[in-house]
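Quick note —
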Amino acid sequence: MSSTANYSEDELLPLSALQHLLFCKRRAALVFIENVWEDNPYTVEGTQLHQKIDDMAVESRGKLKIARGLWLRSLKLGLIGKADVVEFHCADPPDNTQSSGGVERDAAIRLPGTRGLWSPFPVEYKRGRLRREEGYEVQLCAQALCLEEMLNVRIPAGAIFYGKPRRRLEVEFSPELRVATETAASELHKLFDRGITPKASYEKKCESCSLLDICLPKAMKSASAVDRYIQKALGK
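Predicted structure written out below.
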């Protein structure tokens, strides 16, 4: 499951930018190219949730080992970042005589200082209610692809943990989601290579964006209309 490196270490981009990109390319450019940021109640809640995760130590609970803040990278996708949580589920009994739970051998690895085989399972923490959201699922899948490249293992699924209901949404890393993730990573590199922030375009989702008062999509829309009127009046 090894892959050919397409990017150098210097070309690696933040894995977390994928979520922003799929929400809005302009937002991704403002945050990661122009270094613009503004909090709102949603982002503060998300930050507090992640701080709680960062404060926790590495845990071992029998057949479950939990690593927090694990650094990930993929030279194939050109991404680097941290995973909120990577769980390692025991896939073999201690004597390693047979697999358990129907886990295939290429979906499990050996961990230093432990016996048996362990299956990685990435978990991303998000605020709010349980829901399907492409950006979140792509970000989680990107973490899995990084782990697959780093550990030479196959990861079939992960989960998104939502803070409000304190429930998980399991995500299967289907061929379609993997392609969507690779495409998003490629689009992110194109955005950075161009270095140009896309123009604002107002949509309903803009109201929940913390950068609304900086981006001013409604004002930009009006300005574009005025520009078109002037150009028309001048016969251009």
